[in-house]
Design goal:
Elements: E1 10-15, H1 18-21, E2 33-43, E3 47-48, E4 54-55, E5 66-72, E6 78-81, E7 84-90, E8 94-98
Antiparallel strand pairs: 1-2, 1-7, 2-5, 3-4, 5-8, 6-7
Length: 105
């Protein structure tokens, strides 16, 4: 098994099939960005902003979470390992995080 260690402020996401994740995402043909969903496989260290504040990565994404993130047109924000595609996502580009809820009635 390969272990990825992203730079501070970056998460690595494995793309999930929209049908299996239950998400329906829209991309605009007039825009050079789109929303994708993925499962977080690695989280970088916390980052310090220009204003001196610390962004705690675990507040935004944890390994195993499903996230919706903004991806830009081009091949610079993803890589392929084996047969899987992974995206390197800046914490600022994560739009939402989903947690599975278990019904235990």
């Amino acid at each position: 098994m390969t272990k990825f260690t992203p730079a501070p402020g970056i998460v690595i996401c494995e793309i999930t099939e929209q049908e299996s994740s239950g998400l329906s995402l829209v991309s605009s043909p007039s825009n050079r960005s789109r929303l994708l969903s993925g499962r977080v496989t690695a989280v970088g260290d916390d980052i310090r902003t220009d204003f001196g504040a610390t962004l705690e990565m675990r507040r935004y994404a944890r390994v195993g979470d499903t996230v919706v993130f903004l991806s830009y047109e081009g091949s610079y924000d993803f890589f392929v390992h084996g047969s899987k595609r992974f995206y390197m996502v800046k914490i600022q580009d994560i739009r939402s995080t989903f947690e599975e809820e278990n019904d235990q009635n």
